[in-house]
């Protein structure tokens, strides 16, 4: 009888312990297949972090994507059942008080809000974090990782302190504090990714951080756009932006005409207009590290070449993006009195941007300008998608092979001369621009997901 009581007592004592062990194993199993991706910025304007989320979801992970939802992410992300987007609340800077106080209040709010959002989520095996901005996100993610057993993966796009230094100066106390914080917290992460080998070497030599280069690659939805889809996009954009509208009406009112294409009313066939303008496309975040006054100066020189009698096409320049300096540059653009150049600054939807870049009519030039740490400028001509910002002298050669898949310039004079050379035979297929496109089309570059599978996935399995 006593033995029965002892056995019963042992069962009552061990049952909660067995349940706790089972619960912990169940939680660990769920945690191992869950990843949190953190963007302390606009998710819709963070394509690389969207690609991380999609690649993780394709490998069977459930993904929680935290960020500001000011712009619509890509449909492929929204339609994926494994990805949940959690909105972060963005606190605008106070309009009163010293600048340092305004910034401090914002950082404290972001830290508390992000900590709360992360702790309310299911524990994750990994936390992927975009840097910059890393203040206060790196410290918060490290804290959550310690509490929940998550491993922090930082994707270094740039240095937050260096961007801050463009505004306040490199020797400002706030900039020096941000650099110390970024360096200290960055060393505590479990895995580091970066966009170029130059940044990987700089992280290793100056900060003691071992990182792995994961180049930007076009996602699967970047591909050549059929002519009828091009026409639909031009007609859609033309309803809002005048540079996409036809300069003259067709003789048949039923015929659809944009600035670049025309759809026949009878056959429905779409053709390119013979006298169409060339299209120059640039994406930007409208921040201090991208000096678009250089592009505007080059456009002025290009305009003067046309006025001097050079046989060059008129130009539609599309600068797409959102950011703090957009109004400043829009004001500068409005003061230009171009006769042969039209500039518009739309924000393209996630589905429209790859369509615009994927045109196959030899009339687009995709430009990415940067003036980061070493003040170098670069240009790359793309068939499918933009690459990383060309903001470092040492990384320029990694992304652009001069006169093979792009051109490198250091000032507006060189850029204007290169635009003249590229568009001198436009839209002749024998022109220089078409040769760039042919080289890109024939290159066997990996897509993002294939590259991610070869570089990032093995690292996660080993971490």
From TrEMBL:
It is found in: Endoplasmic reticulum membrane. The keyword Lipid metabolism does not apply. Its main location: endoplasmic reticulum. It is a single-pass membrane protein. SUPFAM superfamilies: UDP-Glycosyltransferase/glycogen phosphorylase. Signal peptide: none annotated. PANTHER family: BETA1,4 MANNOSYLTRANSFERASE (PTHR13036), CHITOBIOSYLDIPHOSPHODOLICHOL BETA-MANNOSYLTRANSFERASE (PTHR13036:SF0). This is Chitobiosyldiphosphodolichol beta-mannosyltransferase. It comes from Hipposideros armiger (Great Himalayan leaf-nosed bat). The gene is ALG1.
